[in-house]
Write a structure and sequence with these properties.
The complex is a heterotrimer of chains A (197), B (295) and C (660). With 197 residues, chain A is an all-alpha fold. Chain A contains 6 helices and no strands. In chain A, helix 1 packs antiparallel against helix 5 and helix 5 packs antiparallel against helix 6. Classes of the chains: A mainly alpha (197), B alpha+beta (295), C mainly alpha (660).
């Protein structure tokens, strides 16, 4: 009897993983649409500034490195979980959370700077699409941070169970996905904007 | 009883079709009653494509009705093969016949979309008349840059003369349609689209907007008069005698929303009005007029 | 620009002021709601309603609730259609009719939006919920709770849309709300926001359903049922849900951007300011065209099941059919530009998209021929589902031909946005989508309720629908060619449109009779349920697994999960005189009821309402509430209940005893 229930559990997890992969794909399409919008509008500066003058490369590079590192540390949580070391899991989670939070802080700071200097989303189609594309990524990061907090709470309460490890794996998928999206944002928005493409 | 039912089933549609035919006969079926070369060719294309479609429609109906009658479960004499589920020949035909028709129609589509491209100038011995068209809330402004006159809700063109319309919008998107002369083209703010047409028969033809643009949309109709050269010249003279002129200041007055606007004429139309209108919506730093015109 | 103003946002007394016709509408809806509440209270059915239905995670019950809501919306949007035709029948020359132009525009916008998102999508998801788990031999969908969330989000979107009738007003920008008309500059009222948020909420529900059913189909199939043994309905749902997953994110993005334009003053689609309205038209059709196939594919699937069953014959050309579905799925993303050939994209682009559009007609044609050859050498029983099928082929073929004509760009220049176009897409959506779903409801009704629908009334309903359709839409084909455009609330007398509009109005009346017959059919069948009882569980001499269990199907569908060797497993079983193989019964789990789907949808409604009226506190309440609800659900360890031998229905027990 007990064996049976276990089997069902595993079948349930493969469903969850498949479902989550499909969700990630829908999110990909969502971002693809936003990238397409950005590609159409990025020259429509409406007499305002273009990306070439607005974006600071070192700043964007710093953001990128922080997010990449957080992706690495979140990967380490899985390794620790495999060794059933819940303390290490919590430690790496905390570091990931910190890096994610730092990234978000930097992004908000950049947004704030742009708005303060008179380059808000109301100025042009280019800035509207910039704020929306980067902001949507930021929104995903915020959701990731909340998710991390809940996971840590779970692991703190229940230790490493099948359920928490599943949650951890799914979270990692999500976080790596956000990393990939950011690489695209970095290349398309900042790098190509800097070159003036 | 059954015979009566079949009799009614056949008679009833015939009566309906007959009545409909008698009613429609004297009416002006705009798309099938073209008065210019472009609309004529579009009509011929419509009829040709309809004719080709019959090659699918007729077999579908014939097979459906035959099978429905023959293999009705009441007819126990008909052959019954419950496991018959594939046949190379039939499936090849199912894919093949539509495919052949579509290939044929594709060739026609490709050629006709090039030949009847609304941007393509019409070749003619007569010089082309240029007209600038603005879709407004909720009226049409026609500017004749060659004559520096303008009119609202009235387009007058000389017979057998190619006309090039440059179209923009100072309002939501609209779509211009003069079914007896040419098909529809969208009008968009900050964009210029084009429509080339020609009128080969004198007369007055209805034009309208076909894309919803707000409360006065249904009243956004205009008259298109195809007239002799003489009448065209007298229209110009009449317009020049009008006491209204069109410049940016008077345009701003005109552009206030109004519905069911009567025809009016302007004795003088300043050359910068049209560029003023679409420049209002130009947004990118590196787009100029030529690239916004689409070709 | 007002982001947030005061505790009530933009909401004030003027939002509740309407003209007389709107007030009548509000009164009718309000009174029916009050009446329903009173009846439920009087019969003391609240608890029953809550535990048996509203909180249920059984896909069959969720499916029925979908269909119930969708039928209500069909009636509501059908009333809209009647009002439109009435207006067009009398608003000629000096007579302005009984609707103001802005009210008329709200009505056609609401008609299109309601019909597509809440009538057609609702019927579709209803039938998918009922059909898919049964047909693949499963007890449930992959994510039962998510399924309930999807359904309640659909309901929240529906309620939000109908709230616009009483509070504020609805969009008048058409069912796809092209900017710049739908921008703040030209539509300053909350109407477009209602449109955005009711679609947004229902759309997210659809997206979640799409994921859910793909996983269900891939992971929950009965043992032995490999992909090429799936019933055709399941294949068609698989195709349709793939399209949902690929296309709906585009809708989500597009209408979010429109909202950002309106709320934050961004410039995505504005006239001026760096916006590009044409981009909206491209994006919305990149979702909109696949949406049409999302609706029609499951209807194709239902017809595939019905033709085979009622001809008592295998489906002809199974493999062809599967390929045709996937050809349609793929091609549906390559044709969106045919909705706006008139934009002046240039002849190469127009030519390309015209040809792609015609190419998609090939797989559709193949399907039609395959159904017809399924009838060949069959023993066809013309029950009402089969009448719908006949009507479908007759009318859908005309619509298809009209579609191919419209795919030739120069022909489209003449017919785009005319009533010819309106008649074309109604041919596809009424005779294709709706007839398919009506047939499906009749077909699976006994499996859910345990008795069949009175067939003779169903036949009359089908005839009224078919004849009504001809009267309502053939005049529109003619009107389009005469130069009548869509969405006109008024026209001049000398055009000769009026008699045709009157005939079209009569057609709507005949369709109304068809609807009446359908409602009557349900009532008569309930009264005569004893005579109509389905004792065998197999009223149609069916072919697929769902007919092997008793009617009505128990909550868990199958006491013992079936195993599959053939495409038409149940039919083959019957041919060899069904022999029970010995199988051991094992206890299994089904999900417990959950009220959280309801809660989440209520909160989503709050978010939508707050976003429409710019009410900050309510918005925060909704967002935080949804987060808490999700966290609460993920903490809940106790979501399953076990079914043991004692819980089985009497019949299942007997069958099990027979096998032991």
């Amino acid at each position: 009897m007990a064996e049976n229930i276990d089997l069902v559990e595993t079948a349930e997890s493969t469903k969850t993983y498949l479902g989550f992969w499909i969700y990630i794909m829908t999110d990909c399409i969502l971002f693809a649409s936003l990238f397409a919008v950005y590609a159409v509008l990025h020259n429509n500066t409406n007499g305002g500034h273009s990306g070439q003058t607005l974006f600071s490369m070192p700043y964007a590079l710093a953001e990128t490195l922080i997010l990449l590192t957080s992706s690495f540390t979140s990967g380490l949580t899985i390794l620790a979980a495999r060794r059933n070391n819940s303390k290490k899991v919590m430690l790496w989670m905390a570091i990931t959370f910190f890096l994610g939070g730092l990234f978000l802080f930097l992004e908000v700071k950049e947004f704030n700077h742009l708005i303060q200097t008179g380059n808000s989303w109301r100025v042009s189609g280019f800035l509207s699409s910039y704020f929306t594309l980067v902001g949507t990524h930021g929104l995903h990061i915020s959701i990731g941070l909340i998710w991390m907090a809940i996971l840590v709470f779970f692991i703190f309460r229940n230790g490493l169970s099948k359920k928490t490890i599943k949650g951890l794996t799914l979270f990692n998928l999500f976080w790596h996905f956000l990393d990939v999206i950011w690489i695209f944002i970095f290349s398309v928005v900042y790098l190509m904007g800097h070159v003036g493409l | 009883m059954k015979r009566i039912r079949i009799f009614i089933a056949i008679l009833f549609p015939i009566i309906i079709i007959g009545v409909a035919y008698l009613y429609l006969k004297p009416l002006n079926i705009a798309v099938l009653n073209p008065k210019g070369e472009i609309a004529l060719r579009e009509k011929n294309l419509l009829l040709f494509a309809s004719f080709l479609s019959l090659f699918v429609l007729v077999p579908v109906y014939a097979l459906l009705i035959t099978f429905a009658i023959k293999y009705n479960e009441k007819n126990t004499k008909a052959k019954y093969s419950p496991n018959f589920d594939r046949s190379r020949t039939i499936e090849a035909l199912c894919w093949g016949i539509p495919a052949i028709l579509i290939i044929l129609l594709s060739i026609v589509t490709w050629q006709s979309s090039h030949e009847l491209d609304p941007y393509k100038p019409i070749t003619s011995n007569n010089p082309t008349l240029n007209v600038e068209v603005v879709a407004m809330d909720w009226k049409w402004l026609f500017i004749y840059p060659d004559y520096q006159i303008a009119s609202v809700n009235n387009l007058t063109i000389p017979i057998n003369t190619p006309v090039n319309l440059k179209i923009t919008s100072d309002a939501p998107m609209n779509q211009i349609w003069i079914p007896q002369l040419a098909g529809q083209v969208m009008t968009m703010p900050g964009m210029i689209t084009q429509l080339n047409l020609i009128g080969n028969t004198k007369g007055s033809y209805l034009g309208r907007s076909t894309n919803i643009s707000g409360s006065g949309f249904a009243g956004m109709t205009f008259k298109t008069n195809v007239v002799s050269d003489q009448d065209f010249n007298s229209m110009i003279a009449m317009s020049r005698s009008s006491n209204k002129i069109l410049n940016i200041a008077s345009y701003q007055q005109l552009s206030k929303p109004s519905e069911n606007v009567p025809i009016s004429y302007y004795s003088y139309a300043s050359a910068d009005v049209f560029s003023y209108i679409y420049n209002k919506y130009m947004s990118s730093s590196n787009v100029n007029i030529s690239s916004s015109m689409g070709n | 620009m007002i982001y947030f103003a005061g505790i009530l946002g933009l909401l004030n007394v003027s939002a509740f002021k309407h003209d007389i016709i709107q007030n009548v509408g509000v009164a009718v809806m309000g009174l029916s709601a009050i009446f329903a509440i009173l009846i439920i209270t009087y019969m003391k059915k609240w608890k029953w309603l809550f535990t048996e239905w509203l909180t249920s995670l059984d896909p069959k019950k969720i499916g029925l609730m979908y269909i119930f809501v969708a039928v209500l919306m069909l009636l509501k949007a059908g009333t809209d259609a009647g009002m439109m035709r009435l207006q067009q029948s009398i608003s000629v020359g000096n007579n302005q009719g009984f609707l103001s132009s802005s009210h008329y525009q709200q009505i056609f916008s609401a008609h299109g939006t309601t019909m597509i998102f809440f009538a057609a999508m609702g019927l579709m998801f209803g039938l998918i919920n009922i059909g898919v788990p049964l047909l693949i031999g499963a007890r449930d969908v992959a994510f039962p709770f998510l399924n309930s969330v999807s359904f309640w989000l659909f309901v929240a979107g529906m309620i939000l849309l109908n709230t616009s009738l009483a509070v504020g007003e609805f969009s008048g920008a058409g069912w796809l709300a092209y900017p710049p008309l739908s921008e703040l500059q030209f539509s300053p009222s909350v109407g477009v926001d209602y449109w955005i948020w009711s679609l947004q909420i229902a759309g997210i529900g659809s997206l979640l359903s799409g994921i859910n059913f793909i996983v269900t189909i891939l992971k929950n199939r009965a043992k032995g049922m490999n992909l090429m043994k799936m019933p055709m309905f399941v294949w068609s749902v698989f195709g349709s849900m793939t399209l949902v997953v690929l296309a709906f994110p585009i809708l989500t993005v597009t209408i979010t951007l429109l909202y950002l334009d309106r709320f934050l003053g961004m410039h995505f689609f504005t006239a001026g300011g760096g916006g590009n309205p044409m981009m909206y038209v491209n994006l919305i059709w990149a979702w909109g065209h696949p949406e049409v196939y999302i609706l029609i594919l499951p209807a194709f699937g239902i017809f595939s099941e019905i033709v085979a069953t009622f001809s008592k014959k295998r489906l002809f050309g199974y493999t062809s059919m599967v390929w045709a579905i996937w050809a349609i799925v793929l091609l549906s993303f390559t044709v969106w530009l045919h909705h706006f050939f008139t934009m002046g994209s240039g002849s190469d682009v127009n030519g390309f998209f015209g040809i792609m559009t015609m190419v998609i007609a090939i797989p559709t044609g193949v399907k039609i021929f395959n159904w017809i050859f399924t009838m060949y050498r069959g023993r066809i029983n013309f029950s009402s589902p089969m009448i719908y099928f006949m009507g479908f082929i007759l009318l859908f073929s005309i619509g298809g031909v009209a579609g191919v004509l419209l795919a030739v760009p120069p022909v489209d220049f003449q017919l785009n946005n005319s009533l010819f176009l309106v008649a074309h897409f109604h041919s596809m959506i009424v005779s294709g989508v709706l007839f398919g779903y009506f047939a499906g409801i009749t077909y699976w009704f006994p499996k859910i309720f345990g008795f069949t629908l009175k067939d003779i009334i169903g036949k009359y309903a089908a005839y009224f629908w078919i004849i009504g359709f001809i009267f309502a839409f053939v005049p529109l084909y003619i009107l389009g060619i005469m130069g009548a455009t869509r969405r006109m609330n008024h026209y001049s007398n000398d055009l000769g449109f009026q008699p045709l509009f009157i005939v079209a109005g009569l057609g709507v009346g005949i369709i109304g009779l068809g609807l009446f017959m359908q409602v009557l059919q349900i009532f008569v069948s309930i009264i005569k349920r004893k005579q109509l009882q389905d004792k065998t569980g197999d009223p149609w001499n069916g072919r697929t697994l769902e007919w092997s269990i008793k009617s009505p199907a128990p909550e868990y569908n199958y006491a013992i999960l079936p195993e599959v060797k053939y495409r038409d497993q149940f039919w083959e079983d019957k041919q060899i005189r069904y022999k029970m193989t010995k199988k051991q019964f094992k206890n299994f789990n089904v999900p417990k009821n959950s009220y959280l789907g309801l809660v989440i949808a209520f909160l989503a409604f709050c978010v939508g309402f707050a976003a429409i009226w710019h009410i900050l506190l309510l918005f925060i309440f909704g967002i935080v509430g949804i987060l808490i609800a999700i966290i609460y659900r993920s903490l809940d360890e106790n979501t399953l209940k076990m079914i043991t031998f004692d819980d089985l229905t009497q019949e299942d027990k007997l069958r099990l005893k027979g096998s032991n």
